Amino acid sequence: MSEQINIVKRMYEKRGFLIMVFLNLLAQLGITYYVMNKTNNPDIKTFPLFMAQILIILVFVFVPMPRIMKFALFAFFSYIFGLMLSVYKRKYNSAVIDTAVQGAMSVFGVMLAAGVALTAGGINLGYKFGSILFWSLLLLIIFRLVFVLGLGMSQAHKILSFIGILLFAVYVVYDTNKILQRNYYGDFFSASMDYYLDILNLFSNILSSNNN
Question: C-alpha distances in angstroms, 63 versus 43, 58, 70, 185, 201?
């Protein structure tokens, strides 16, 4: 019981850090949503944008930089993500996209609450659980390459999209557990990046699950 009280106390002490995490998260999601809605370029190429995102993540993680530079780099990453997501407008109408946005935020909210409850209950999901999620994500990517790109099976595409929704919902719980227990030494950008990727992947999978 005393351990649970100590965990709740640490969570309360991190309130300032958590406020910054969510303020930055809202700002970055706002950039992505705005760019996605305002971009109308049917010839946009997503692969170079994807490679640029990989490079930005590597720089973001491994290169020390002041906060203002991290925010700027994160904002650029969010801008690129908005460009990539704009291609969905070729396939889906605005109502379907807005429903996917609401669905992603709803799943995020529920799983965020679940993560807080688990952490308050003294549960630490730990490195092994994170490894299981990582390998599950890797398998999901491989199956998508085989069944979707290779065979073009729409039913397989839907099934894998539903699996992706479940996987990233669990990722929200795991990331919440990690954020509340790990010492980020004030680096709220890294914490909000985890949530940002969870939400955008939830959105993409929810939208893909509506594919006919």
Answer: 33, 8, 10, 16, 25
* Residue 149 pLDDT greater than 60, yes or no: no
| Residue count (the chain) | 212
- What the block records as the tokens of 55 is 């490079």
Calpha distance 169→104 (Å, rounded)? 9
pLDDT digits (tens, 9 = 90+) for 53-105: 999 999 988 888 999 999 999 999 999 999 999 988 888 888 899 999 999 99
Cβ partners under 8 Å of residue 83, min gap 6: 35, 36, 39, 41, 44, 49
Q: Which two tokens stand for residue 73?
A: 């780099």
| pTM to 2 decimal places | 0.90
CA distance 200 to 194: 10
Instruction: State both tokens at 121.
Output: 């209950």
Q: Quote the CA–CA distance of 18 and 139 in Å, as a whole number.
A: 32
Question: Cβ(49)–Cβ(84) under 8 Å?
Answer: yes
Integer Cα distance of 139 and 21 in angstroms: 30
